[in-house]
Amino acid sequence: MKTSGKALAEKVKQIKESDMLSIRSESLPTWCPGCGYFGIQQGLNNAIQQLGLSHHKIVNVTGIGCAGRYAFFNDAYGLHVVHGRLLPVATGVKMANPELTVFAVGGDGDGLAIGAGHLPHMVRRNVNVNYMLFDNSTFGLTKGQISPTSPIGTVSKASPSGNVDTPLNATLMALSYGATFVARLYAGDPKHNTAIIKEGIKHEGFSIFHFYSSCVTFDKVYKTWNNLKDNVHPLPPTYDHANLKHAIDHVLEDDFSMGIIYKND
Amino acid sequence: MLKNDITVEICGTSGDGTIAAGGLLNEAMSRAGFSVIAYDSYPSEIRGFGRCVTKSRFGLEQMLAFSDKVDVLISLNDSQSYSRTPFLAKNAVVLFDNKPLAKVKEGGSIAAHVGPDANLFGVPLINLALEAGAVRKGKNLAALGAFVALFGLDPDFFRPVITNKFKTKGAEVIETNIKIFDAGFNSTLNNYGEQAVEALFAPVKNKNKGKILVSGNAAIAKGALDAGLELYFGYPITPATPIMEIMAKELPLKGGKFQLMEDEIASIGAVIGGSYAGKRAMTATSGPGLALMAEMISLGVMTEIPAVIIDAQRAGPSTGIPTKTEQSDLHAAVFGGPGDSPRIVIAPTNVKECYEYIVKSLQLAEKYQTPVIMLTDCFLNNRVENVLLPEKSSDQMKDCNIYPDNSEKGNYKRYKITESGISPRAVPGMEGFVFSSTGLEHTNDGKPADTPQIHMEMNEKRHRKILNALNDLPEPEEFSTEKLLDLGLITWGSSVGAALEATLKAQKKGLKVGMLKVPAIYPYHSDHISNFMNRCQEILIPELNFTGQLANLIGHLHKKVVLRLNQTTGEPILVCDIINRVEDILAKINK
Asked: Between the CA atoms of A186, A188, A190 and A193, what dihedral angle is there, to the nearest 10 degrees?
């Protein structure tokens, strides 16, 4: 059902009058229309608002790539760093001032290609930083090359005959490194995500949120909205997120279950 | 003949206790009132067959560099030591083991390798150690005892130093080691009589009150701690590692935080993060680490975030020779990284300045919101001197950040264009000053921008800011007796000591030679430097790198092509090398 123009305008007015958007900065996101990152941002904004975090006590350390631009789209302290190094920088920020709520925001290229070496050590340090890993399996800002999470066979300008390299699974990596809070979330479900993000922010220690997102511009085959929507599903009702072995077994079998995969307080 | 100073070398292989013996000797001689300057040369392997040499110069006055010749050679392993004999002074004293356990091959003893002028003293070092109930490694202490006896020094300066060294190992170990030391002392006294070597020194007046025997690395760590360092992030790399190890132990005791990182990129990243959040933060590395940090340093320049990096240079390129000294990172420090990224680079020239300059670096980084690289080198990091360090003061701890005025609240422009180039800096947690920073070119409120005007304006601002820092940087120091000079030396870092000693010697000979020490590498005092250059017929720049990196940087200030003395032996530059070159040049001028 299509929303009428009048109804849409009314809805926008309502949202603007509420303080839901107060964390948004005056700079409008430069992501492509329909990008999954809008959904991720919505969930994050809701969580920040519901927890009542003061904006001046939030720092977003962001990497390079589409996700990295997040630093400019929020009314909070933002530090947009070099490619792949957001986790060490976030470590420094949090250790300098533990009163700050620190988000590290970056994409799959940033965090799993050039910056992948920092993830295990961030987990080892267990500094209380919230890592938002926006995973759309695409190097979007350089116009659509395959990333470390692209499925085998993905054709791109960097893989004209199709990708032959095995994709990484960031959720599984985080579990095996020993992360104490691991969530896997779907960009298209901000409502569900809000509660989980809140829980992760409150978690004392490093939290990683692995977001499945689409790249509407460069990926028309794999992680499209339709494919994601058809495949994602909640964790089974019997799922025990306090059991690491259980979590690893589950993730090895199920690529599309969304929720708190592992939590150890 | 009475001398003002003597140079002592102890030589052995890795595992002979060479470096340990050198440390004990330096500490005891410092307690005895001598000025000390010492440096160890050792291989990169922990256990192996590499040669270890400790070189110490003991003097009545503060010394600037090492002497070219060795007055006393203590051999803990003759097969290594005879390579040192070409460096022996005339009538040098050579102390060696005359009853080694294994049969000595013909020509295997050092006695076969010294000239007829040498004074040989054989002492059964290993036997004495074994008799005292220790293993053969104890020979190093027997050698120290023998040295003390030969020179008629007071053993009571040595015994407490030995006790202190082994205090964590228990009373028995202390007792055994003192026993070996005494055995070496008594045996030598019995065999050669009291003060067998003609007194080398005039009586010592103890001027060491308040002085501490400290390495460049320890002085850097102490300076940073006294300056109220709050965060240290690091990754091990020779020869900077000791700074990190001191921080790991000391910084948490002073309320700061230490974190070992996964690599140098992470170390500088965390420093940038910590400084961004308003804390005093630093790291230390060597050339290979500096190369990895280049991109992050450039981020610090672009986002105008303080960061202090010690680059303890070593022989390069690539992994190079990790335990050997060189001054070959100057270009990387000044220019390394993407784009035009001006930053401050300074270079201390002795142990005392290591302390003073790290304090300065931490303050400059805050005031000018910039990465500051402090260039040291293996020879400076590892050398020990007994020096009087400044007292810790509130001035050193002073917060040098320039914060925005309350009136800017709500309308804060982080990168406001100012005359000085410095834009007041808010830190996260301050209400009403929220801003974004980015490595992208940006507007005055930190939002990405790519217009020609903004890029030009911001580039100018960043460069203007760093050039203004010149007012706060240590000025060049001139050592000349005359206004017009035949030859002017210009030098930097650890080579300054040798160059200055060479200059003073030349001046004593009546030569018209002067010297300019340049502590600020970037930005540099071009007026001051060119003024000096223009008063000299020729300019010679001695430095420990292959291409003449300081000469490349400042050579254009001279009306003529500057002359270079580039050395990459991995060892400190010698006074005689500089003098020889100086005399060559003067001979040509006066022809």
From this structure: -10
